[in-house]
Amino acid sequence: MGKEIKGAILQRDKETYAIVPRIPMGVMTPEVLEKLAMIARKYGVRIIKITSGQRIALVGLKPENVEAAWKDLGMEVGPAEGLCVHYVQACPGTETCKFGQGDSLGLAAKIEKMYVGKEGFIPAKTKFGISGCMLNCGESYLRDFGAFCTPDGWTVVAGGNSGGRPRIGDVIAKKLDEEQVVELFGRCLDYYSKNARPRERMPRFVERIGIEEFQKAVLQ
User: Fold this and answer.
1) Of 15, 31, 119, which is closest to residue 64 (Cα–Cα)?
2) DSSP SS3 for 171
3) Nearest Cα residue to 53 out of 22, 12, 10
4) Res 187 pLDDT > 80
5) Cβ distance 48 to 59 under 8 Å?
């Protein structure tokens, strides 16, 4: 039976582990790709998997190699467990996409810097989805908090999730600029952290108190 190892996730075989480096918004560089490939070859990684959160999991590490693999990578852990913001998912937005109405990567980067991996201030794992247009390639309606851009500005969504009990998020504000979105997310997380039950995910919290009550509290 495998033991718990910091920064690693025990796999189905109960003998090997996966590590998930933090890759903000899923944006890669040649240097990061080369480093991941080097680690995979050096430590006999069985599977390299792109995750739903736009990260890359290195699966099949032996327990005695986990610490060395992290040291060789020199990258931060992409949280996959724990009571914190796990990731901010984002589409290319106006950086490259012909449909982009807003800078989704830029907004997502601000949120990443403010919240990802910082434990102790929210009651359950939390995910963001940021989309540069109404096509919502960043899955904004399916994340605890989301935003997507329209020609009139940003729309903010709260209380969505996929998984075993899926829920389409509710629109709580429209026609915001980027700074207003960041400020609203801050108020949302603050209210959620102060009023949710331990380990209560955002969609379950919204179902319990009602989206009208949540919207009233964060838009004051």
Assistant:
1) 15
2) strand
3) 22
4) yes
5) yes
**C-beta neighbour count of 219 within 10 angstroms:** 12
Amino acid letter, 1: M
CA–CA separation, 139 vs 118, rounded Å?
23
- One-letter amino acid at 170 equals D
Q: What is the pTM of this model?
A: 0.89
- Residue 6 to residue 104: CA distance in whole angstroms: 32
The per-residue pLDDT for range 143-161, each reduced to its tens digit, is 999 999 999 999 999 999 9
Which own/partner pairs from 60-67 qualify as long-range (CB within 8 Å, at least 24 positions apart)?
Answer: 60/11, 60/16, 60/17, 60/18, 61/8, 61/16, 61/17, 61/18, 61/19, 62/15, 62/16, 62/17, 63/2, 63/3, 63/5, 63/8, 63/15, 63/16, 63/17, 66/5, 66/7, 66/8, 66/17, 66/19
Task: At 56, list the tokens.
Answer: 């890359």
What is the crossing angle of helices 30-42 and 66-73, to 10°?
Answer: 160
